[in-house]
Design goal:
Elements lengths: L2 H10 L39 H17 L6 E5 L4 H11 L3 E4 L23 E9 L3 H12 L3 E10 L9 E6 L17
Helix pairs in contact: 2-3
Length: about 190
C-alpha cells in the first residue's frame, strides 16, 4: 500500500486497496466540501452500523429533499441525543438556525433519561430532526405539542422504520422493515467500547 493510501486509510478508516470499500466506490463516497449541490449515491440496503460519512451523506440528501419542498424551516429542532448531529449538519447545509430539545417518549424503546421539557420555539415553520423514527412516539408527541402552539411542523430522520410509527416523517433517507433490529449509530458509544 502506498504512503498516500495508508494516510487515507488512517484518516478516513477506509482501506483504499479494497475494491468494494474504496473511496471511489458508491459505498464509500462522501462529500468533503459539504456542497449541497453534489449528489452522493444513496445506499440501497440500510446499514445497522452506519459510520459518520453515512450520516453526512444522508444529511446532504435530506437537505436536498427539504430544499426541493420549497418550504424551508425557520428553525431546526434537534432531539437529544441522537438527533443533534443530523440537526447540526442540516442547520449548516440549509443555513437555518438550530436549537436542541431534551425530549424522548417514555413509551418508546429509546433512552428514558430526558427532561422532557419543551421550551418556547422561535419560528413558525419547525423541522424536527432525530436519528431514527422507530416507534414514532417521540416525533408524534413533539408534533402534537408544537402544533398546539400553532407551529407548522415537519420532521426529518435518517432512518424510518416502516409500519411501526405513530408519526410518519416527511423526510427520511433509509427505510427499515418493521422487524429490523437496533441501529447502532457512531455516537452511541462509551469509554468501555
Amino acid at each position: 500500500m502506498s504512503k498516500i493510501k495508508q494516510l487515507l486509510a488512517m484518516v478516513t478508516g477506509i482501506d483504499t486497496d479494497d475494491g468494494e470499500n474504496s473511496l471511489t466506490s458508491p459505498e464509500r463516497w462522501f462529500n468533503i466540501d459539504g456542497n449541497p449541490n453534489a449528489t452522493p449515491p444513496a445506499r440501497e440496503v440500510p446499514l445497522t452500523h452506519p459510520e459518520y460519512y453515512h450520516v453526512h451523506n444522508a444529511c446532504v440528501l435530506l437537505a436536498k429533499q427539504i430544499k426541493a419542498s420549497e418550504q424551508l424551516p425557520d428553525i431546526i429542532v434537534g432531539l437529544t441525543r441522537g438527533g443533534l448531529l443530523p440537526a447540526v449538519l442540516l442547520s449548516n447545509l440549509l443555513n437555518v438556525p438550530m436549537t436542541a430539545v431534551d425530549y424522548s417518549s417514555k413509551k418508546g424503546a429509546g433512552d428514558k433519561h430526558h427532561l422532557n421539557i419543551i421550551p418556547q420555539i422561535n419560528g413558525h415553520n419547525v423541522l424536527l430532526v432525530d436519528d431514527i423514527c422507530d416507534s414514532g412516539l417521540t416525533l408524534q408527541e413533539m408534533y402534537s405539542e408544537l402544533t398546539k402552539r400553532r407551529h407548522f411542523v415537519r420532521s426529518a430522520v435518517l432512518y424510518y422504520k416502516e409500519g411501526m410509527t405513530g408519526h410518519d416523517p416527511e423526510f427520511y433517507h433509509y427505510i427499515l422493515p418493521k422487524d429490523s433490529g437496533w441501529v447502532n449509530f457512531p455516537w452511541e458509544c462509551s469509554l468501555e467500547d
